[in-house]
Amino acid sequence: MTLLLEEGKDIEIKQHGSYAIVAITKHGVELARKLHSVFQTGDLYYMSKFQKGDEEKQGIQMFDGSVRLLLPSLFQAYKGIIMIISLGAVVRMVAPILKDKKTDPGVVVIDDKGEHVISVLSGHLGGANELTREIAELLGAKPVITTASDVQKTIPVDLFGKRFGWVWESADKLTPVSASVVNEEHIAVIQESGEKGWWTYDRPLPDNIKIYASIEQALPHAPHAALVVTHRNLLPEEEAILDNGVLYRPKVIVLGIGCNRDTGSSEIEDVIIKTLNELNFSLKSVKAVCTIDLKKDEEGLLDIVQKYGWEFHYYTPEELNAVSLQQPSDTVYKFTGAYGVSEPAALLYSRAHELELVKKKSGNVTISVAVIPSR
Questions:
Q1: pTM for the complete prediction?
Q2: How far is CA 244 from CA 85, 173, 185, 295, in A?
Q3: Where are the domain boundaries for CATH 3.30.420.180 in the chain?
Q4: How far apart are CA 245 and CA 189, in angstroms?
Q5: What is the pLDDT along the chain (375 residues), one digit of tens a residue?
């Protein structure tokens, strides 16, 4: 299939992988074909005048016309774009279609001889830096990455905790906090929950980055910027730490839930939200909903976990009964074969020694809450 690229014409592409490889020169096509053969998640596009005859068999798409007209479709479809085109030309072509660093795909440029792989756009959030390293290794080329936090081997603020699933409360202060980090100002890392293994470089933590157990402990030291990792909603007297700070939500909250058959998702959701508000916990830190296997097909529960993208786990009565409970129930045992559902389910998944909320019954829903201990 050859795509005809014309102004104002919609371009339908056949996407199979997560990344697009694009070439427009003779040597670039040879290099692109080499990369395509070893980079299994890449779809290859090049100009039809360099046709080899095996394109359909290899799943390669060709085009006639300006590659500039192809880029908007590639930007919408792919996680990253690898372009064997001169850096200056790429910059001019992508400039008009850029939207936001949180949504733009990663863009990587390779020179015609395959000597350098350059991270050009969305190095962190779009994954271009990681992609650059991967492609350079495949080609035996030199990766070129200019992001300050990567060069200095310090904390990349926009990626902090991403591999654990941490999410920001707000992205408003990402840029100024990142500037403070790379300028080696006093940075407070305040971690109340979440995974501990976030420092991955083979050198000690820089002297300008200090770890504090609480916001109360950090505030008297007047840090220039702060990275706050907690599942709690901050108290009014703590919010000053975010004047130049980013609040991260680790996925640590586990909801144990029992409910009557055919309980609606709106009732379950209402109980969850009200309970977390009472505990002063963030909804963004919920990791999983857990219950008994009798409820594995409960539509209300399935709707909730799908809506929020939470994990859903269920346990047999025997597994639940192996957990020592504060409030065992003969009534629950009569109907389920387990002396409790919400309490032991939350404890089993979280591996916590105790619950933040042992058990609360509200209407058709019973809920328990645990927080996964930091490890």
A1: 0.73
A2: 39, 6, 12, 45
A3: 253-371
A4: 10
A5: 677 676 766 677 888 899 999 999 999 999 999 999 999 899 999 999 999 999 988 999 999 889 999 999 999 999 999 999 999 999 999 999 998 877 889 999 999 999 999 999 876 667 888 899 899 999 999 998 877 666 667 788 888 998 899 999 988 899 899 899 989 999 999 999 999 989 988 888 999 999 999 999 999 999 999 999 999 999 999 999 999 999 999 999 999 999 999 999 999 999 999 999 999 999 999 999 999 999 999 999 999 999 999 999 999 999 999 999 888 888 888 889 999 999 999 999 999 999 999 999 999 999 999 999 998
CATH architecture of 157-249: 3-Layer(aba) Sandwich (3.40)
Domain boundaries for CATH 3.40.1390.40 within the chain: 157-249
For domain 2-146, give the CATH number.
Answer: 3.40.50.11220
Q: Which of 105, 240, 227, 230 is nearest to 157 (CA)?
A: 227
Angle at 345 between CA 344 and CA 347, to 5 degrees: 60
Q: Kindly indicate whether the domain formed by 253-371 is annotated with CATH number 3.40.190.10.
A: no
Distance, CA of 118 to CA of 135 (rounded, Å): 10
Q: Where in the chain is the domain with CATH 3.40.50.11220?
A: 2-146
